């Protein structure tokens, strides 16, 4: 009996989905609170947190759905996340005055144990390895 579920919903893929879902909830909650109560204090930081939340939501849904189209969406989401955390992380270190309050991606995700910088790398690696396994390439 073969498992017909997409690779993203089996084994390590389930853990990846769970971590992305956790970050989607955390980033969304944080962004909504910041935007609703303190937007005037650090609009750029809070809008970037909202953008990160959207990226985490899209990645979670794409990983959970699986299949060829959703795998591409997940790869794009993970790539955007990686670029975002590298750019925002670098800018928050080089130009800290532009980030008076932290975002999910500030200081390369230091406030979240650096998971935001590691997660997209793991996501891209996992997606690439599952795609290669589906094609029979090692």
What does this 3D model show about the protein?
It is a single chain. This protein is mostly helical. 72% of the residues lie in helices and 0% in strands. It is built from 4 helices and no strands. Helix 1 packs antiparallel against helix 4, helix 2 packs antiparallel against helix 3 and helix 3 packs antiparallel against helix 4. The longest helix has 28 residues. 31% of the residues are buried. The model has no long low-confidence stretch (mean pLDDT 89).
Summarize the structure.
The protein is 72% helix and 0% strand.
Describe the protein's topology:
Elements: H1 12-38, H2 43-65, H3 67-94, H4 115-135
Helix pairs in contact: 1-2, 1-4, 2-3, 3-4
Number of strands: 0
The whole-number mean of residue pLDDT values reads: 89
Ends apart, CA distance between termini: 23 Å
Strand content: under 5%
Helix content: over 70%
Shape: elongated
Rg computed from alpha carbons, rounded to a whole number of angstroms: 16 Å
Low-pLDDT segments = none
Report the biggest beta sheet as strand number plus sense, adding barrel if it closes.
Answer: none
Q: Please count the helical segments.
A: 4
Question: In sequence order, what are the helices and strands, one letter per element?
Answer: HHHH
Structural class by secondary-structure content: mainly alpha
Key attributes of the depicted protein:
138 residues; mainly alpha
């Amino acid at each position: 009996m073969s498992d017909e579920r997409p690779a993203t919903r089996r084994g390590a893929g389930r853990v990846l989905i769970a971590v992305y879902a956790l970050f989607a909830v955390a980033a969304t909650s944080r962004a909504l609170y910041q935007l609703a109560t303190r937007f005037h204090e650090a609009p750029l930081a809070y809008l970037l947190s909202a953008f990160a939340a959207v990226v985490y939501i899209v990645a979670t849904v794409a990983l959970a759905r699986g299949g060829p189209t959703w795998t591409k969406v997940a790869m794009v989401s993970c790539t955007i996340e990686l670029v975002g955390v590298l750019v925002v992380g670098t800018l928050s270190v080089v130009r800290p005055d532009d980030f008076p309050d932290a975002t999910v991606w500030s200081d390369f995700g230091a406030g979240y144990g650096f998971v935001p910088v590691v997660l997209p790398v793991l996501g891209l690696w996992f997606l690439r390895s599952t795609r290669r396994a589906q094609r029979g390439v090692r």
